[in-house]
Amino acid sequence: MSVAFDPSLEAAPGSLLNARNMIVAALLAVLALLPLYSLVTGDTFVLTLFTRVLILAIGAVSLNLIMGYGGMVSFGHAAYLGIGGYAVGILAKEGIGSGLVQWPVAIAASALYALAVGALSLRTRGVYFIMITLAFAQMIYYVAIGLDRYGGDDGLTIYKRSELGDLLDLNNKTLFYYLCFAILLGSIYLVSRLVNSRFGLVIRGARSNERRMRAIGFPTFRYKLMCFVIAGALCGLAGALLANHTNFISPAMMHWTRSGDLIVMVVLGGLGSLFGPVIGAVTFLLLEEGLSRLTEYSNLILGPILLLVAIYLHGGIEGLIEGRRRG
Amino acid sequence: MARSILQTESLTRRFGGVVAADAITLEIAPDEVHAVIGPNGAGKTTLIGLLSGEVVPQRGSIRFDGADITRLPVYRRSQLGLARSFQITSLFRELTALDNVALAVQAHRGHSFRFWRDARREDELRKPAFEALARIGLAERAGVRVDKLSHGECRQLEIAMALATEPRLLLLDEPMAGMAPDESARMVQILRRLKGSMTILLIEHDMDAVFALADRLTVLVYGRIIAGGPPEAIRADPAVRQAYLGEKDGGDRRDRHG
User: Would you say the ipTM is above 0.85?
Assistant: First the structure.
């Protein structure tokens, strides 16, 4: 018997050609070709919509890292979108236009904030954890409202997108779309490495049974905190992208309902699955967009749909596909 | 007696009005199997909690291998070589048996701030983990998810995980809990093989197992030690017979944990 087993949490597929992988591949293909469609048909709205989908998917990937793999349900994840966005907006207003400054600042500020929030909230569990992450996010939200110089409640228009040299002109919508797509794929790859590394197994072990983790000798707190910080940094980058996408920042970016949206995307796609957040983000934002065109009361339809997913689909949409494959 | 590996000094812990540990002074010699017995509610699991660090004593001290560990957190004690198994199976249910044990190995191979390499392909972790599984008779079940294992197998895995941390002192909290007689007998065999290679503190209701394994016994009643010594002496002790051994035949020894 060989020692080299390859057991895996997300079910090691016997063949690459299973339903789940095909769906993911199809989705990625659609996302990759979307700008061509937009170019041919001249439909720029779809490109704008999907750029937004990609950016929020990065946020969902980040949340999935702590929530899906680490069991840390952060109800304040939109705060990182805001911090990343405000880093870009504030620096732009102060005349620092280089993305090579703005983006690292966005990432670092989010990481620092995550460090502070995590250091406090990770000492608690369950509902208390959720409430503390929410409380911090609300605090940041009101801080943003108080920033009169940067638009306060009304927000701030960003007149120039981040400058990343001549080759990467973010004003080029197609280019910006592909940059977001590349960052999304990169973040998924990052998470796939992380969750299967020693570090990742500690995180997953702590989600599964933290008491046992301590008993076998792991100081779990510091690993969870590190995970929280990594996720915060990644979502901060998404925030920087979002600010560039909308050319605008406002406290609404980090309203608590936005944190809720991110949770919904992750749950919809399937907790703790690599591509789940992408599926979740696409589904959620398309539903939201589509329903809001049909009726003013789109939430009346969206709500029950989410409820049904939560009740019947524990593995999210990915789980549903997986289940069908099995039989 | 050789220098003791574990020593407690008037260890005391109250929960509200209940004294779960009442001035427990205990010495355990290297490489002995020391069983702690007592009726339900005698404070046996509290004692394991105190020794492993999950329960903080209000008074008293614990020395492990000469060092005071009274205030050390759970994970530090594990790193010093103090391992425990749980009375109620406590595993990583979504992971395979091998993953479970590999995590225990990993905990003792330096820090885990390693973010990139696939931990499931590291021989440094997988090999010792597999050996620990083999030692306990679970080698063929290595790739099976824990939630697909039988109760008896989970109990074995409990021990394998503790073993994988290469402990010098193994705290076993009712390893036979809820086991069928044949599974119990197998566990006794497994534990017998471990005898001599490490110190074992065994809490167990199954008196046949206790007397088959233990070099020395301590009898706990209402958080207090009422007797201690070699098995023959304990068996003959009238106070023990009255407090505990006599009750055992009532057939209710598993009532609490089903």
Answer: yes
3-state secondary structure chain A: CCCCCCCCCCCCCCCCCCHHHHHHHHHHHHHHHHHHHHHHHCCHHHHHHHHHHHHHHHHHHHHHHHHHHCCCCCCCCHHHHHHHHHHHHHHHHCCCCEHHHHHHHHHHHHHHHHHHHHHHHCCCCHHHHHHHHHHHHHHHHHHHHHCHHHCHHHCEECCCCCECCCCCCCCCHHHHHHHHHHHHHHHHHHHHHHHHCHHHHHHHHHHHHHHHHHHCCCCHHHHHHHHHHHHHHHHHHHHHHHHHHHCEECHHHHCHHHHHHHHHHHHHHCCCCCCHHHHHHHHHHHHHHHHHHHCCCHHHHHHHHHHHHHHHCCCHHHHHHHHHHHC
* Interface residue A12 vs chain B (CB under 8 A): no
Put simply, the answer to whether A3 touches B83 (Cβ < 8 Å) is no
Q: Does A218 touch chain B (CB under 8 A)?
A: yes
pTM (two decimals): 0.90
Does A214 touch chain B if contact means CB atoms closer than 8 Å? Answer: yes
Do the Cβ atoms of B90 and A9 come within 8 Å?
no
Among A99, A54, A97, A70, CA closest to A222: A70
Model confidence pLDDT, tens digit, residues B198-251: 999 999 988 889 999 999 999 999 999 999 999 999 988 888 888 766 554 444
A215: which chain B residues are within 8 Å (Cβ-Cβ)?
52, 54, 74-75, 78, 83-84, 86, 90
How close are the terminal C-alpha atoms of chain A, in Å? 30
pLDDT in tens, B115-158: 999 999 999 999 999 999 998 989 999 999 999 999 999 999 99
Q: Per the CB < 8 Å rule, is A194 touching B115?
A: yes
Residues of chain A in contact with residue B98, where contact means CB-CB under 8 angstroms, are 5, 7
Cα of B250 to nearest chain A Cα, Å: 34
Alpha carbons B24 and B38: distance in angstroms, whole number: 14
pLDDT tens, position by position, B61-112: 999 999 999 999 999 999 999 999 998 889 999 999 999 999 999 999 999 9
B-chain CB neighbours of A192 within 8 Å are none
A-B CB pairs within 8 A amount to 122
In DSSP terms, which residues pair with B229 in a beta bridge? B217
Report pLDDT for B257. 41
- Residue type (1 letter), A189: Y
Which domains are assigned to chain B?
1-81+167-258 (3.40.50.300), 91-166 (no CATH)
Is pLDDT at A2 greater than 70 in this prediction?
no
Asked if pLDDT for residue A326 goes beyond 90, the answer is: no
Using the predicted structure, report yes or no on whether residue A8 has a pLDDT greater than 80: no
Q: Is A98 on the interface with B (CB under 8 A)?
A: no
Which among A3, A216, A226 has the least Cβ separation from residue B103?
A: A216
Structural domain boundaries in chain A: 50-256
